[in-house]
Design a protein that fits this description.
Strand order of the largest sheet: 1-2-3-5-4
Helix content: 40-55%
Order of helices and strands: EEEHEEHHHHHHHHHHEE
Distance between the termini: 28 Å
């Protein structure tokens, strides 16, 4: 059975390949330089100390680089960390698989993609179907959508996590639609698919994502609407089309009431927009809670959930 970074316990030796997620330099009391590294693999991330760093090490150890470490696990202030004894860059001959270096959705990407395609095929609106088909047929967008997380830290923050989030929302929407006939089915499905499409450019990459300059200055809601408008112009779909306006409204309002300060450009003003906001909240919060519970040790009864900004109880 393969053992990953978070599987090791205090006192154990770790010899493994991992991804450098973050790097901070410091100076020890003896004036020697050291590095605080955040290292990750598919089990999660762990902090590591590398003492007596040479200038060459500072140069080749970079964020998003893959390294092989020989380290010891210690517990510092109640948390496990690594003390690195030896480190080297990974080479092509090591044949390290990216899927072993970052957390990955438990659902295979091709299975998720097939469910997405089936939903698009089921749309009755030729306008919305054309917009989404154009999105999915654009090679760069398609490749990003098959790999990007839904966020940096909060929810579905793993390889093809955004695609998992979209399909989960579509599944929930399909279940709830019979209860709410006032909701526009096709606009709801289109919103599930496109609400976070701006994240493909708000975030830098799927491996060690950070926020891009446009992402920080504009944000993914506005970026998503700009992408929809660009596609409409390309396809000669009027920007004043009722379904296009409704879709844009749902994207711009999906973070909830403007007064909440969560980033919505407008507050939801249609049954579809309001239902989608709560669907998005349910899926994102439950995913984050699931990750919190999964990370708890067997003897832990309570743990802090960052997505809720409070401690949560395992309940059993």
């Amino acid at each position: 059975m393969t053992k990953y970074l978070l599987d090791y316990q205090e006192g154990e030796r770790v010899v493994a390949f991992c991804l450098v997620k973050n790097k901070e330099a410091g100076v020890a009391s003896n004036q020697s330089e050291y590095l605080n590294l955040e290292l990750g693999d598919r089990s999660g991330t762990i902090m590591a100390k590398l003492w007596d760093v040479s200038p060459e090490m500072k140069e080749w150890i970079t964020v998003k680089s893959v390294v092989k470490i020989d380290a010891l696990v210690q517990v510092y202030r109640g948390k496990k960390q690594l003390v690195i004894q030896r480190i080297r860059p990974a080479t092509a001959s090591d044949e390290v698989m990216m899927e072993s270096l970052i957390p990955v959705s438990p659902v295979p990407v091709d299975e998720l993609w097939a469910k997405l395609e089936a939903t698009v095929d089921s749309l009755k609106s030729s306008t919305l179907k054309a917009i989404i088909r154009e999105v999915l047929s654009t090679e760069e967008i398609r490749e990003r959508l098959r790999h990007f997380p839904a966020g940096v830290r909060m929810h579905h923050n793993y390889y093809h996590g955004l695609l998992e989030h979209i399909v989960s929302l579509l599944t929930a929407a399909q279940s709830l639609l019979p209860l709410y006939p006032q909701v526009d089915r096709d606009v709801l499905y289109a919103t599930c698919i496109l609400h976070d499409i701006g994240k493909l450019y708000e975030l830098s990459d799927p491996i060690a994502p950070d926020y891009t300059t446009p992402g920080q200055l504009i944000g993914h809601l506005i970026m998503g609407v700009e992408m929809v408008s660009g596609i409409c112009r390309k396809l000669d779909i009027p920007l004043g089309d009722a379904e296009v306006l409704h879709l844009k409204h749902c994207i711009l309002s999906h973070h909830g009431e403007v007064e909440n300060g969560w980033g919505s450009a407008v507050s939801g003003k249609t049954p579809t927009a309001i239902l989608f906001h709560y669907l998005d909240q349910i899926d994102s919060k439950m995913n984050a809670l699931g990750q919190t519970l999964a990370d708890m040790s067997e003897d832990e009864e309570w743990a802090y959930a960052g997505a809720l900004r409070r401690k949560v109880w395992r309940g059993y």
